[in-house]
Amino acid sequence: MTDSLLNDSAGVSGLTCALELAKQKGNTVTVVAKHMPGDYDIEYTSPWAGANVLPMALSDNSRWERRTWPVLRRLAAEVPEAGLHVQTARVLRRKKDVAKGFKAVLADGLFMLDPWYKELMDNFRELPASELPEGMHSGCEFTSVCINTAIYLPWLVGQCARHGVRFKRAVLKHISEAANMSHTGRKADIIINASGLLACRLGGVMDKTVHPARGQIVVVRNEAKSIMPTSSGCDDGDDEIMYVMQRALGGGTVLGGTYTKDNWDPNPDPNIAVRIMKRAVEAHPELTDGKGIEALSIIRHGVGLRPVREGGVRIEKELIDGTWVVHNYGHAGWGYQGSYGCAERVVELVDEIVGRSKRTSKL
Ligand code: FAD
Questions:
Q1: Which residues does the annotation place in the binding site for FAD?
Q2: What is the CA(43)–ligand 1 centre distance, in A?
Q3: Domains present along the chain, CATH in parentheses
Q4: Does residue 333 carry a pLDDT above 70?
Q5: Which residues pair with 94 in a beta bridge?
Q6: What is residue 148's DSSP assignment?
């Protein structure tokens, strides 16, 4: 039996699902999306991400990140055209944040003392006191990757095409409309809903627990010298954060950022931009060889909206208007680093719906 699957999105979540589903024998996949790689739009989160791997889950909900890391590590090592490269993550815990019990806006698990991910990430080490900047309680380093999303998303499209996935542009008012959009001409058996932030507006879903967390960034030409620093907080406000990551293949260095809930403003704020650059250069003077923010060479300013869902990501099946829908949305600030783990669960749910026996995972 051939299952016709309709994937209603082309962000990192939808494309990864489309690829993993298309690799399975018997599936025919059509991707329908309002936005595609190459577009920059405030409703389309994936192009704005850094993106790197900084584990954020707590141990008991870490499946998505645990299952994704080996895939991203392999792509960085073996598939240079995918646009990932290996970098060293440096996670710093400030004394004042440890003292108040870590109210970091960005991550639950990233800054924890003795983190679960020390077993997962290669070359994990706690930093000795001699390597800690002033004001830091502690910190750790581990091998991670940075993804050039401008290369990686089109690469995913290419991989999907290679596995027979077909693409269509359309704006869905209601999730059920997708059932009639399969390129096979037949009604789709299953719809995958990976609509990201727009899950809050999509008919049939209308998930009002999905909110934006606005992330402003500055992309510069300066190099970060293979280190990706981030800290548990900063003195510029509770919704401002500090991170630096250099993208692979000439993608520039992303300086961040902010994490402002329920703010849909697509316009970069110049005052925030200055604070972002100051924090980055202060934390990582190597960026400008100690010459301050005037020596930053700006490529562009940007804003993306992380799709945050109260209660966490939604990955489950639901019968809507007589067609099975498998939801995969609400990935907040970890959509890349959880992408393959979530797609693996989507494949399992599709298998449950069509009654196939458990497949051996290819991840
Ligand atoms: P999206 O990328 O928004 O894609 C949604 C898709 O659904 C689009 O194709 C859209 O057109 C389509 N769609 C929606 N509604 C409809 C409709 N009605 N009809 C047709 N199509 C529709 N993650 C990491 O893992 N690491 C990082 O370092 C990282 N850094 C980040 C930094 C910033 C500044 C931001 C903003 C995010 C960051 N993230 C990071 C988070 C990550 O970008 C998101 O979790 C991820 O991109 C969400 O992808 P998605 O596919 O679910 O949604």
A1: 45-46
A2: 8
A3: 2-47+150-208+310-354 (3.40.50.720), 88-146+211-309 (3.30.9.10)
A4: yes
A5: 136
A6: -
Q: Which among 68, 141, 56 has a CA at the least distance from the CA of 105?
A: 56
Residue 214 predicted with pLDDT over 70? yes
Between 26 and 154, the more confident residue is 154
Select from 35, 106, 201, 260 the residue to mutate for testing ligand 1; criterion: most ligand atoms less than 8 Å from CB.
35
Strand partners, 91: 140, 230
Is ipTM strictly over 0.90? yes
Token pair, residue 73, equals 């590590």
* Ligand 1, pocket-test mutation among 217, 306, 339, most atoms within 8 A of CB: 306
Burial of 17 (0-12, 13-18, 19+ CB in 10 A): buried
Binding residues: 45-46, 306, 333
Pocket flag, ligand 1, residue 6 (CB < 6 Å): no
**pLDDT above 70 as % of the chain:** 96
For 249, left (φ over 0), alpha (ψ -120 to 50), or beta? Answer: left
Strands 190-193 and 3-7: parallel
Q: Is the dihedral of CA 307, 308, 313, 317 positive or negative?
A: negative
Q: Tokens 């059932």 map to which residue?
A: 179
| 198, 202, 218, 342, best to mutate for ligand 1 pocket (most atoms within 8 Å of CB) | 198
Residue 363 has pLDDT above 70, yes or no: no
Joined tokens for residue 312:
């966490």
**Structure tokens of 86?**
């290996």
In which element (H, E) is residue 219 found?
strand 210-220
Q: Cis before residue 164, ω within 30 degrees of 0?
A: no
Digit-coded pLDDT (tens) for 76-116: 999 999 999 999 999 999 999 988 876 555 567 999 999 99
Q: Is the CB of 327 within 6 Å of ligand 1?
A: no
pLDDT band at 359 (very low <50, low <70, confident <90, very high): low
Tokens of 256: 């961040």
Alpha carbon 215 to chain centroid distance? 12
